[in-house]
Amino acid sequence: MTGISLPPLDILALLKQYGLRPSKGLGQNFLQDDHTLQAIIASADIASTDDVLEIGPGLGNLTRYLALAAHSVTSVELDKALFPALESVIAPYQNVRLVQGDILRMDPADLMKSPDYLVVANIPYYITSAVLRHLLESDLHPRRLVLTLQEEVAERICVKTGKMSLLSLSVQVYGTPNIVAYIPAEAFYPAPKVDSAVLHVEILPEPVIPAPLLNTFFTLIRAGFSQRRKTLRNSLSGGLAIAPVAAEKLLARAGIDSMRRAETLSLEEWRKLCDVELSRDTAR
Questions:
Q1: What is the CATH number of domain 211-283?
Q2: Domains of the chain by residue range
Q3: Residue 199 and residue 178: Cα distance in Å, rounded?
Q4: 8 Å CB contact between 139 and 110
Q5: How many angstroms separate the CA atoms of 191 and 234, rounded?
Q6: Residue 1 in contact with residue 46, Cβ under 8 Å?
Q7: Backbone angles phi, psi at 195, to 5 degrees
Q8: Side-chain half-sphere CA neighbours of 183 within 13 A
Q9: CA-CA distance, 12 to 261, in Å (whole number)?
Q10: C-alpha span between 65 and 95 (Å, rounded)
C-alpha cells in the first residue's frame, strides 16, 4: 500500500503534554518528516495481509503508517515512560499490539507466529548490530527488513567484496541489502549528529552459507576480524587459538593467501574456508 497520508504528529507538543524528554541513553530521535515516513512505507512494500514487527516505536509516528498498511503491527518499546503518549497516538488503530520490553531479550517466535513477517523500524543506532543479528539468526526470521540506520552503518552493510566487515558479512549471508533512501538529520527531533539511511534487506530463501556451516562461518569471521589490521594468518591464529602455521595451512587448503586481511575475502571464500575448517574438525 502506497500513498498513505496522515495529519502531522506534533512531536514537541506531545512531549510537553506528557512531560517527556528524549533519552540520549536510549538513542531516542523521533522521526517527524512526513515524506520520509511515506518513503519508508513505500519501500517496505507492505501488503494488507502482512504482519509487521516494529522495534522502538517511540511516539508512534511510523506506527500509524504501518497500521494503515498492514494486517497487524506488533510494536516493541523498551521505555515505559513513553507508553502513555504512545498509547494515545495509536488508540485509533485496533490492529496494533504494544509490547513493553527489550527486543534483544525476546524470541521473535514468541512475538510473530508466521515466518513471513516483515520488520519495519526506526531502531536506536546503538543497538543496530545486535538487533540485526538477533533477528537474522533467530529460528523465525523475517521475510524483509526495512530499517532506518545511521548512514555510515547502512553503507557499510551494503559494501561489496574488498571492504567487507563483520556486520556486512553477517547481513549478506542472509539477505540482499540496499539503501533505498537517505534521510537528513533534521528529519528527526531531536536531530542526531549524523544523517541516516533507509536500509532494505530482502531475506534469501536459504542463507548463502548452508545452515550446517553457519556456526563454523560465524566462528571464522569473528576470528578473522578479531584483529582486523593483522593478516589472516595472525588473526585466525589468535581468534581460533591455533598456531600460526596451522592457520597458514588452513588458508592454503582453501586457496587463500595467508597474507590477506579479513575484509578482502568474499562470502564465497569464507564458504571455502568453512568447508576446510569443518573437514579439519571432523578429522580431529
A1: 1.10.8.100
A2: 11-203, 211-283
A3: 6
A4: no
A5: 42
A6: yes
A7: -80, 165
A8: 33
A9: 48
A10: 12
pLDDT tens for the chain, 284 residues long, are 456 778 999 999 999 999 999 998 888 999 999 999 999 999 999 999 999 999 999 999 999 999 999 999 999 999 999 999 999 999 999 999 999 999 999 999 999 988 899 999 998 888 898 999 999 989 898 999 999 999 999 999 999 878 899 999 999 999 999 999 999 999 999 999 999 999 999 999 999 999 899 999 999 999 999 987 899 999 999 999 999 999 999 999 999 999 999 999 999 999 999 999 877 654 45
Contact 72, 51 (CB under 8 A): yes
Burial annotation 255-278 (CB, 10 A radius, 16+ → b, else e): ebebeebbbebebebbbbbbbbbe
Look up the CATH number of domain 11-203: 3.40.50.150
Please tell me what DSSP assigns to residue 79. -
State phi, psi for 148 to the nearest 5 degrees.
Answer: -90, 120
